Amino acid sequence: MSGGLYTQLLDLACGAFLLAAVIVLWMRELASIVRVFALQGIALAAIAVLLGAHEERWDLIAVGIGIGALRAGVLPYLMRRALAALTQDRRRYADGGAETRETQPLVNVAASLLTASLLTLLAYAVARPLTALHPTPATHALPVGLAVVLIGFFVLVTRRRALAQVVGFLLLDNGITATAFLATSGVPLIVELGVSFDVLLAVLVLQILTTRMREAFGTTDIDDLRELHD
Amino acid sequence: MSVIPAALATATAMAGAGAVAGFVLPYRLRVPVVGVLTAGVGAAGGTAGLAATGGSRWAAGLPGLLPLAGAHVAVDALAGLFMAVAGAVVVAVAVYGIGYAAGHGSHGLGSRTAQAVLPPFALTLVLVPVAASVSTFLVLWELMALASLLLVLAEHRERASVRQAGVWYAVMTHLGLVLLLAGLALFAAKAGGETFAALRAGAPTVSPTVRGLVFVLVGLAFTSKAGAVPLHAWLPRAHPEAPSPVSALMSAAMVNLGVYGIVRTGIDLLGGGPAWWWLGLMAVGGASAVYGILQAAMASDLKRLLAYSTSENMGLVLIGVGASGLFTAYGNRPLAALALAAALLHVVNHAAFKALLFCAAGSVLRATGLLDLDRLGGLRSRMPATAGLFALAALGAVALPPGNGFISEWLLLQSLIHGLQVPGVAVAVVLPLSVALIALSAGIAAAAFVKALGVGFFARPRSDEAASAREASPLMIAGMGLLAAACVALALVPGLLGDGLDRAVSAVGLPGTGAVSGGGVRVRLADISASLSPLWVVAALAAALMVAAGLPRLYGRRRRRANARLWDCGGGAPTPRMAYTATSFAEPLQRVFDDVLAPEQDLNVTPVRESAYLVERVRFQRRVPDRIEHRLYEPVLRGLAGAGQAARRLAGGSVHLYLGYGFVGLVVLLLALAVGW
Q1: Number of structural domains, chain B?
Q2: Which residues of chain A have a CB within 8 Å of the CB of B651?
Q3: B18 in a structural domain
Q4: A Gene Ontology CC term for this entry (chain A) (predicted)?
Q5: Range with the lowest mean pLDDT among A32-41, B65-74, B164-173?
Q6: Interface pTM (ipTM) of the complex?
Q7: Is the minimum CB–CB distance between B652 and chain A shorter than 8 Å?
Q8: Which of A26, A68, B489, B574 is most buried (most C-beta within 10 Å)?
Q9: The pLDDT value given to residue B527
Q10: Domain span at residue A181?
Q11: Which of B653, B667, B677 sits opposite A227 (nearest CB)?
């Protein structure tokens, strides 16, 4: 693969990766959010595979394919299952889709998008000295990973629905993974395997928690959980 | 091979064996075995110290002992002096402690924990001066603090107040550790090395501001350990609540290490400093001396009185150290050496009489279960040996001839009085003031110890416990006898210490003065035309006493003596309750210092029902609170508690809020990084 094509493809993948995170902020319907998250998983896999192809390391390509399978396949599937249970409820109780929509985030959508742009700027500002250390196409894309970390954290802080929270957490993790790939040009297989397994377990646990929450309180709005204090 | 490493290795091995024995052995065997091993630790450590004051030196690096930096040890004459003092105190107190803990059940000092911790505590007392790098010093310092804390807590099952004292002690000693860590780490970073040799070499390159900051930080930590105001609050709490042998060890050996720390870092490692350092130190010392002895004069708990007296004596020592630094700053090195020698001699003297006083107080506690002077009395006839030993030590504590404290205070006063030849306004103001403070504290000390001895041991017993007191066990008396012998030797022939003291002073780079050398009989000052012969002073005093006591007897023999009942004003025979108590004895003094002490009074008059004029009961209560604690500590504690209460509102329960804290923290950090670049 020629250098120019590699750079363009990598930039494209990173752009898609960041755009997916921003779209998650924009969407209200949880089903669409999960779909966008799956797309982001594909973009992340593409970044890993591109890096692997550029450096001709087959283990990196394998890691990329694994990441794609997990983040574009397994995790969205799990979330969709949790969503399906909620959708059944909607049919049963006709509650106007309050459970499957992020109707009232703590910060409204317009302000969220504005904040996302500011966070991206901050990520670029912070990553400047890192990029300057060793300027390659991969490190130039490093701020994208940081920006997704920050946007994921922002989703965690501002979204009410438990499922949206799960997506926020996964965005955060996607961002960390992307940063790791871009900064070190490849994470050892064993590390990535451990992280992925961790994420999978976290999602499984959160899925069960979501179901339980709905059963116990009739809602998945985590703002209703206020017992956790001194 | 030098004797020092061998002695130190022996001490360490014995402390290890003692700790194991304390854990493993059954109660009956535990106390004597641990006692003997602890005495061994003291003897070995003291031997090493004596060898060092005798002129031998030793230094070594033990790279495997501590991670990263390795341990560095070195012994010079200054360290040797403190080791010898600690070792001697440990030996005597260990002997006393066997008698104290034996036969009183496997709780308190006889418990497994206390007996297992006692030998390591003794070891750290000896080893702290050996440390020759910051990390080694801090590790040993912290081990000493932890071991002493466990020992203070030994009787926590018997009294709830022990736990409170333990908390105070733990918090304050660790605040001290934090200050020490900050100061020494800063010093090591700026000097480019953490061994004392590197610090010594790097100190001149460190900027004056940093040096001043280091001195203030470590000075606060060390004066707190020495029990000087304003960070003294742990001392009058921990000393009375600890078992008496532990109080003796803490008060006679541990607080000395605060002085050692200041001399080591301030004069030796930092290489002296500007006058304001030493003026500050003298101010702290002067305040401690007067305030400590005032509180001691007011206290009616015997051990509390002794604890405050420790604060006073450490204040005097700090005045001496401060004067030494001040004279060095103004370039008068012989006087500086004299002041430091006086301070070090006072450390030795104080260790001897204060250990004996605490041991005697412990004997009283064992015999009567009481420490309240108001309820003691009449112990002289029931416990003659203890009373005699207490009187001997009290004589040392009041700094009057022929007590041992007199010589060091005399030296200190000589150095201060002759310091007036040093030019400078600050000196001209501070030195006379210090002399006045020392004189004032000596006067109040006399009142305090007359009270302790007179009210506690003379007169008639004021409670059944005091009336049925029994003399302490032979081992306790033997331990106290060792200390008494040390007191007498220091009072009569302080010159035996002379060369060692000289070497200790010259170890920090000051010229030796030969202040107390000269065959052990005379104390003469080379640069100042003053001399003193303690032996002659004692002989003259003894002769005067004999004349004063003998003449009336000779004269009175010619007259007929008539024995009759004391006139009681027709009110019946006087009861012991009518005699002077500690409180009533201190009352005039309290009136004089009313503004300083600010006592709190409570008067409750309950009239008989249906009549406002007939009184059924009057209840009068008076407390003399520690005013510094009142004014300085309580606002801080209230502020902390208020901040803690306010901080609870930060945790409202919303998950979003908690996540938001993390997010905002991260963004602020990143912003700081981005702007910082």
Answers
A1: 1
A2: 229-230
A3: no
A4: plasma membrane
A5: B65-74
A6: 0.86
A7: yes
A8: A68
A9: 56
A10: 3-224
A11: B653
